[in-house]
Amino acid sequence: MPGVPEAHGRSPRGAAGDAGEGICSRRGGARRLRSPGHTLLARGKTMVFSYDDGQLRVTLTDDPPRVTVYGTVDLSNVAFFGCLLGTAGRLWAGDLVVDVGGLEFIDVGGLRVLAALALTEHARDRRLVLLRASPYLRHLLTMADWHATPGLELADAPGDPPAPP
Q: What is the largest CA-CA distance in the chain?
């Protein structure tokens, strides 16, 4: 497919574009609202979803619409990570904003999820905006040649213009 970033002969693939409706579970590949370590709260107009497996913590908030990621994305949680981001992309209108300032480690599977989600958002005439991406994450995206993926923008803080990769 033209425009799909490639690294080592592989296209970015992940759970981001395959996410089912609602928030995903990791059991048996089924996608359900129930999952270990999650909390779903409704506060007026604000929806808060928090997932914490001791290694990865992801929070979705509606006011402002944002996903915040802390910890490690690796083989053990990458499918769930992609499913959460894909769900967030369908929940909100406008750009999908993900604060990755608390991300300590991400493997190539996690990078594929981000690149695939950026392409999905681009097809919707939106962007995947990664806030506070570390030099480590920027370096990995550049090494994989996914830093220029259509729909992917890097920004230093909310409201800042996109930063160079």
A: 47
Instruction: State residue 55's pLDDT score.
Output: 93
Name the one residue in this structure whose structure tokens are 């129930």: 34
Contact 131, 161 (CB under 8 A): no
Looking at the DSSP bridge assignments, the partners of residue 72 are: 105
Tokens of 78: 């990458």
Domains in the chain, CATH or no CATH each: 39-155 (3.30.750.24)
Count helices and strands in the chain by DSSP H and E runs: 3, 7
What CA–CA distance (Å, rounded) separates 85 from 93?
14
The model's confidence at residue 43, banded by pLDDT at 50, 70 and 90, is very low
Identify the burial level of 87 via C-beta atoms within 10 angstroms of its C-beta, where 0-12 means exposed, 13-18 middle and 19 or more buried: buried
Pull the structure tokens for residue 149: 């993926």
Label residue 31 left, alpha or beta by phi (over 0 means left) and psi (-120 to 50 means alpha). beta
Find, among 137, 126, 74, the residue nearest to 97 by Cα. 126
Burial 138-149 (b: 16+ CB within 10 A, else e): bebbeebebbeb
pTM of the model: 0.73
**Which class for 69: exposed (0-12), middle (13-18), buried (19 or more C-beta within 10 A)?**
buried
